[in-house]
Amino acid sequence: MTADRTVHVVDDDAAVRRSLERLLHSASHACVSYPTPAAFLDAVRELPGGCILLDVRMPDMDGLELQDRLIQLGVTLPVIVMTGQGDVQTAVRAMKAGAVDFIEKPFDDEALLGAIEVALARVGRPDQTLASTEAAQRIAALSPLERQVLDALVSGRSNKQIAFDLGLSVRTVEVHRARMMERLGARQLAEAIRLAVMAQLASGTGPDRLGVS
Fold first, then answer.
1. Tally of domains in the chain
2. Model confidence over 22-78: pLDDT tens digits?
3. pTM of the predicted model, to two decimals?
4. Pair (112, 134) in one structural domain
5. What is the pLDDT of residue 1?
6. What residues are paired with 10 via a beta bridge?
7. Which residues on neighbouring strands pair with residue 33, listed in sequence order?
8. Are residues 63 and 93 both part of a single domain?
9. How far is CA 57 from each of CA 29, 83, 87, 157, rounded to the nearest angstrom?
10. CA distance 56 to 83
11. Is 8 left (phi over 0), alpha (psi -120 to 50) or beta?
12. Are 105 and 166 part of one and the same domain?
């Protein structure tokens, strides 16, 4: 295991940390875990490299506050945020602040390891212009209604709420959502939302169109 494959896990849940440590070690990653943001900040100046796997919901200092603090300290390691189901708006805010991806709990092991590999590949390459442009091209291939559904999902709307807003049946929304996911090549909603955020950042018009402040 080399330092540049180290995953720094920041999560206040001991059971989650143990589970992640087992998973990461099985995938040949070095893993260093921290029970609090304060503990991580104490060690941040001597991090060997790698990426950061950061829980959002923690007491005293949440993941978004820690992310802001890391930016102030000039820490450039890629950040993947972990969120609870339905916490899409928080994940979008984290990505607007520079997180490279977000993973919803409970995790899909394959999706998490894939996100970590992508993050580690970006170490030392902060310019994401190409990836953002590619995301914009994929989003542009959506139909107008598929794009409306995606934007609403990014804003944290449920299928039922989207149906009401657009004057459609819930079943119709589900069909367009499935087509949107297939067209984007996204297996999980998190992947589609990541593409939407990256595409908006590439557009140069600012992320506020996503409906999340």
1. 2
2. 999 999 999 999 999 999 999 998 887 899 999 988 988 988 899 999 989 988 899
3. 0.75
4. no
5. 52
6. 34, 54
7. 9
8. yes
9. 24, 7, 10, 20
10. 6
11. beta
12. no
Check pLDDT > 90 for residue 102: no
Quote the mean pLDDT of the chain.
85
Q: What span, in angstroms and rounded, lies between the C-alpha atoms of 117 and 30? A: 13
CA-based end-to-end distance of the chain? 40
What is the pLDDT at residue 202?
66
CA distance 44 to 22: 23
CATH number at residue 109: 3.40.50.2300
34 and 109 together in one domain: yes
Tell me how far CA of residue 197 lies from CA of 34, 86, 150, 205, in angstroms: 28, 17, 11, 12
Residues 22, 15: Cα–Cα separation, whole Å = 11
